[in-house]
Structures are given as structure tokens and as C-alpha cells.
């Protein structure tokens, strides 16, 4: 089983990252509304959506929103917790495949939810699928950590305590991949999970974009949407289809 199918469906993932809450979504997307022209009534695709916090915030602001995630557990949680929002829908879906061709005004991929796959060819295929969901005049918003900064500041080992569980975390670069190994014991049982994300640099992304026919509209360096530079914690790409003016 691919690491992301197992780990993202685990309740322990949500314990370890419990600080990623709706408030975080409001800060990030609230700033986004100030810089990116997202018009009232827009159709927005959030993929992968996790438990739906970003999708719900978008729906509460009046947009027509679809959230997709590979984890049935995440989608079940999202459907139950946001069932009162009529303009919000959730589906189990693999982001490497087109969901609704040419349908969405905006496609959003947040919090380093890219680069999970073993080859660059799969990354390219994933980008093509994301683009295929967009209208010709649509925009893709892709948020990834700043790989070069992460590598320079990599914390090799740490312990994190959450809800009475001590998570032992190790980080290392293995070939092209940043690998985080997470070990812990709960109720007498030992667990071990991994996160494997390809160490994609901004230069790599620009090469990808050229291959799939995307042009960079803007690029930001953090969730306050300040300009990107080599010291920025993130690289937030605002992208358009190259053929939108034809």
C-alpha cells in the first residue's frame, strides 16, 4: 500500500497534525482572497481536501466547492461534519485522474499535497489531471514547501507529544525524497509510518509547468502572500493555462 493511503487514513495523522485547524485555513485563504481574483459564485476544486477544512471555509464564503480525497475515512468525516453546507460536496477520488473535465474556475492543491509519487512522470501526469479539471480561463493554486530552505534547516530527529502519545520523528533525504519516519506506541501497540515527498525545487516546478502548458501568474513565499525568495518557507504558485488567450 502506498504510504499516503495508509497514513492519511490513520487517526494518528490527525492527532499529530491537530494544529492544522479551521483557523489556519481562514488565515491562508483569507489572504488569498485579497491577492487572487476569486469571483462570487466560482466553482472551486480542493484536492486533496483531507477532512475538508479548506473546502468548508470556501463554501462558507459563497463558492460552489468540491472536495476530493483518496481516503474514505477523511471523506466520511467531511461529509458528516459539513453536511449543512448545500454548496459543498465531497468524493473519494485519486487526484491523478480527471474528475470533471473543464468544469472548475479554480483548482487548489494546498499544504504540500504534491510530489507523493515515485517518479517525475507521475508528477507530470498528476499536474495534467489537475489542469484538465479547469476551465480554459481557470487558475491552479499549488502550495509546496520551499525545498531548498527545508533541506538547509532539516531537523534530523525530534519528539512531539500529543494527546498522551509521544511521536518519535526522524527526517532525512533519501535520493530524491524527503522522508519522515514516525514511530510511537499507543495502548501497548507499536506503530511506524512514513511520509515520502519528492524534493521538488522551484526550478523543477518551472520545468514541469513548461511541459504541461502552464504559465506562472504570481508566486508567493508564505501564507501572508509576501513575495517569494530563497529564504521563504513556502512556494505558492498561482498558475494559468498557456492556451487561455487562444
Record the strand order, biggest sheet: 3-2-1-4-5-11-10
Poorly predicted spans: none
**What's the number of helices?**
8
CATH C-level category of the largest domain: Alpha Beta
Shape annotation: globular
* Oligomer status: single chain
Mean pLDDT: 93
CATH topology of the largest domain: Rossmann fold
Fold and architecture overview:
This protein is of the alpha/beta class and 246 residues long. The chain folds into 2 domains: 3-145 and 200-245, Rossmann fold, CATH 3.40.50.150; 150-196. It has helices at residues 3-8, 11-16, 22-35, 53-60, 72-81, 120-132, 147-152, 202-212, and strands at 43-46, 64-69, 88-92, 104-109, 134-145, 157-162, 165-174, 177-186, 189-198, 214-220, 234-241. The strands form 2 sheets. The chain has a 7-stranded mixed sheet with strand order 3-2-1-4-5-11-10, sandwiched between helices. A hairpin with a 2-residue loop joins β8 and β9.
How are the SSEs ordered, and which strands pair?
Layout: H1 3-8, H2 11-16, H3 22-35, E1 43-46, H4 53-60, E2 64-69, H5 72-81, E3 88-92, E4 104-109, H6 120-132, E5 134-145, H7 147-152, E6 157-162, E7 165-174, E8 177-186, E9 189-198, H8 202-212, E10 214-220, E11 234-241
Parallel strand pairs: 1-2, 1-4, 2-3, 4-5
Antiparallel strand pairs: 5-11, 6-7, 7-8, 8-9, 10-11
Helix pairs in contact: 3-4, 6-8
